[in-house]
Structures are given as structure tokens and as C-alpha cells.
Design goal:
Strand content: under 5%
Radius of gyration: 31 Å
Low-confidence stretches: 21-28
Shape: globular
Number of strands: 0
CATH architecture of the domain at 231-407: Alpha Horseshoe
Distance between the termini: 72 Å
CATH class of the domain at 231-407: Mainly Alpha
Largest sheet: none
CATH topology of the domain at 231-407: Serine Threonine Protein Phosphatase 5, Tetratricopeptide repeat
CATH superfamily of the domain at 231-407: Tetratricopeptide repeat domain
Amino acid sequence: MRRRRHKYDLYIVIFLALFTLGYFVYNHVSSESRGVESYSLALENYKKNDYETAYREFGKVPSGSSLKKPALFRQARCATNLENKELAIKKYYRIVHSGSKSSIAPISEYNMAVLMYDTNDKRAKKHFQRIIKKFPTSDYAIASEYYIGLLELQNLPKNTKKAKKIKERAAIHFKNYIEKAPDGRFALTSIDELKKLNTKLNNYDNLLIAKAYYANGEYEKAGESLNKTTLAESWSDFAKNEYKLGNNEKGNYYTELGLKQHAFNTEPDDIYEVIDSYIRTFSQRKDGIIKLTKLGANSTGADYISYLNCNEVVDSNVKEACFRTLYEKYPNGRFSADSLYNLFMAKYLQKKYYDAQRLGFLHLKKFPNVNSSPAVTYFMGKIAHKLKHYESANNYFKKVLAEYPDTYYAYRANYNLFKEDGVLPFAELHEKPVVFPYKKSLDKNLVVKLAYLGDYDLVEELCKKDKFIQSWVAYEKGNYTISAVLARHAMEELETKPSFEDLRWRLVYPMHYYEIADKVKGNNNPIIIESIIKEESHFNPTAKSAVGAIGLMQLMPATYNEVVKKHNLPADLKAETANITAGSLYYEGLKKVLGNKDLYAITAYNGGIGSINNWFSKLIYSDADEFVEQIPYPETKNYVKKVLRTYWVYGNIY
């Protein structure tokens, strides 16, 4: 009897457990679906600026939904827009004190603290301090420094000594803000607050203030602050500021003085920027470099001047000697890898393959992952092939494809492995949409969910430091040029590139205008036309270069008019279809007179048909690689590599 009752009790326990689990699953699924429905409807009203309706609809998101905290955040925003700051504070307070570790917590606490400051709520300071402690590297922590500085100055005591100490504490917070965010929205007001305090500013303080003025385009004021600093520490800032003011003579004076006497105490990037500005003041670039070389600077910057000088040399033997001297003098400098690469290529082009191989081994060992690594690895493969070490050659080519998949040299390595010279491996693209760049996020997929609901502004705020997400938001808002540039920079910052199936690649290489390029392709490969559009204008139909080239394919008006007249086209240079049509016809014409070779047509598109015919007669080369590496115009050489790299990556993605 007891056994039967025990068995009966066990059935009841199992039944209750299953019922509870089922109810929990049903409630969770139901909460999520109701949450998505309510949030979507509320967001529509929010975007229409109907904040009262949006507030009510966001309130209907169930507490069990993962969208509850974003809904509370949006309710707080609605309340703020309705000028009900007390209600907004309550909504933010619920997020902050829910123990959430979501990325929505720091921005909620910051917004709440700002509203508390606006309403003279004494709790504001505590929350700003907490933000600095909990999220020290965030933008909210930097902005909190400014607000704490303001709060310190409220209700100053009459006691002079106490007031002085408080002012000193406030000054520290304002200085912290200026140092961490010289171009921030509160930088100039922080400077104003510092000046009101009449606290003593040292040399470093004045330099910080000058940098903030400079970052905000206040060059006259930057100069006034710089005059309160010592030239030994600030010469590069003096020079940069004078160049911005258009005082090239003064800028050059500070540059020459600084390079001769003070460069050892300056950040390299600042020195390089000043040197570049100096050279731009000369009508002939070479003249500026020669004058800098004659300064005899023997400190930071001297290697950069020598590097620039070597790149200007035309004679191959003199160029090789120049880079050899540079490498031997600065074997571990910033330009040593590129110097060694140039020596390597000199030996390769001289067909001294064993000498080149020795330098290549040294480069790959000493500089395993620098800008010149893909080129050295690729040409080591070519050397191995010429020495009939075929297995070794293929291993080098495979290494290029595996480790540097998105480079021009990956395109060339692919050719060497499969030997289809002159035949482009991809003929057309198959459209894939640009989508949110991650399938999952570290925030329990909250950001992904918000992205697909179309809450772009909140996604942008929650992911300020993720350039891929910022790129996607720009894309969704129709800012295609900004999107492509942001994504390109983000991909360049990755040490290891993802596979071409990764969604982030579509942001770097979107298929804008491909449909038009394919429609008007004629005898062209439409992927090449798409690649030219990307590299010429980054998909900006209104782009205009310094020399007057216009539109997506950056055609000069004279070239465009010639094509229009020849092919009887509509005479609208700025219209997308007209510009691509004319550009495609112009490219087709170049290719036709250059042996139907895309490599030469791409070269001529940038360097001009006259230049390439001149190079044909003067350059000594036995294959396409040797031709490209010897193109005398650095801009054209890089252009050819960029277009073919872009073609290669497009083909792999789509």
C-alpha cells in the first residue's frame, strides 16, 4: 500500500514539475512575442515624435521580455522629450538598480545623473562618481568629470581656505576632461570654467588647453595658450597651429627649429604630421624634402625625412643605395621594414634571386606582420618557383592566401597557384544584402534584437566603440560613403581577418550601383567597374576631386564630354547612371587599345594612356608583377593594387 502511495506521489511531483516548466516556457515565449510586438509599435510612434503614445506602448512590454530594459530606457527618453524629468529619472532608476550588467546600464545611469543635475537633485554627484569608478574608460566617465567639476562649485562656503580647496578639486576635474576629450562637447566650456577659477596653470595645463582649442578649430586662442608654454615641449603644436592659420612661413620656422633642437622630446606621429605640412608648402614636393634633408636633423624625424627622400629617387641604383643606408642607420626604426622590403625588391628585379631570398628570409623573421609582409611572402614564392623549388613556391602562395586573404598579393598568389594569366577568376556577383554585422552579440543578443527591430539610434549609443556597428547604422540611414569608410578602418584594425563569409565584409564592400555597372558593362567585367567606383569615390555620387574629377567614377569633364559626344549619351555628368555609363565606356576604350588587358586599362585609368605607353618603352619587365612594381607613379602603383584587391575581395564575398 505504501509503495503504491509513494508511486502515486512521485507521479504528482513529476506532473507538477512538467506543468511548471511548461508554464515557464510558455510565459517566456509569450513575453518575448508580446514584447517585440509592443516595442515595434512604440518605436513607430517614437519616430513620429508622438511621445505620449510611445510612452504608453513601451510600458506594455512585459517584465519577462528581454526588451524590458530598452523599453524603460525609451520611456525615460519619451518623458524627457515631454519635459517630465522626474518621471524620466524614475525610469532610468529602475534600470540602474536592477543589477543589470547590460550595456544599457552605464548610459542609463549617466542620463539619470544629468537629469538629477538639471533638477538640483543632490544624488547626481554620487552617480557621476559611481560611473567613473564602474566604467572608467567609457565616454560617460569622461563626461562625468565635467559635471563633477560643476557640482563642486555649487554653494561654495564663505571660508576662503575651504573655498580654495574646493576650487582646486573642481579644476582637476575640468583638466581631466580636457586631457581625455580635447575635442569633446564640453572641452571649451571646461576651459571657460578653469579661467573663471583663476587657478594657477602650469606649462602642461596651458598645452592641454591649446590642444583643446586646436581640436575645436579655435586656432587664434590655441596660439594664445601656446605662448604661455615652452617652445622645447610645444614646438610641433606651434608649427601645426601656424599651418592651420595659413602662416606657412612661421610654421616652417618652428618646424626647422624643432627638428634641429627639440625633436628628441616629441611624439613621432606629431613630428611626421609637421614634416608633411612643411613639404606641402613647397610647389615641388622634392624641394621641401631636400631642404629638410639639409637641416642635418639627427633625432626623431630624421629617419622619416630620409625615407621620404628615398621614395623620391628615380634612378634604381641610387634608390637601392638610399634604402640600404636608411636601413643600416635605423635597423629597428619605424621605416626599417619598408626599407628592407625595397632592398629585397631591388635584388628581385635585378634577378639576383639568392640575394633577394636572403633578404626575404630576414624580413619575414624580423617583421612577421607588417604592411610589406604580404608582398615579401608572395615574391619569396616567385623566387622559389624560379629556382625550381615548386613545392616551396606553392607553400608561400598558400600562405599569402591564408594569412593575407584581402590583399592584392592574395589575388596574384591565386593566379600563380592556378595559372590563368589574363583571365579574371570572377565574372559576376550574386547579390547578398548588407545586414547587421554579427549573428550574436556579447550582450545576450539584446543589441542584435534592437538592430532587427530598427532601433538604430539606441544601437548606435550602446555600441559607440564598435566601428562595424557604427558603419551598419550609417548604412541603414543611407550614409553609404561614411559606412564604407568606417567599415574599412575597422577591418584594417583587425590583426586576423575573418573568413569571407563573415557578415562584416559586406559593410566594407557593399554592392552599391553594381546593377547599373552590370547593365552598362559592354565588354567589361562589371566587378572591375564596381571596384573602380569604390576606390574612386567610395560610392559618393557627388564626389569632386581637387583637380575637378566628378562623380562615382571620378571623370574629368573633358573626358566625359568626349565620351558623350562619341557615344551620343545624355550630357549629365553628375547623374549616377550617366557617370557610370561614361566611365565604363571610357574604360572599355582604354582596354581595347591596350591589348584587352584589364591590368593596363586600370593603370591607364589613373595614370593616363600617354604615361602607360611611355612606361611600356622604358620599363624592363618579364611579367605583370614586374611591371606593376616598377610603375614610376606611387599613386598609380597603389591604385592598381587597390582596384585589383577590391575586385578579388568582391569576388570572394559575392
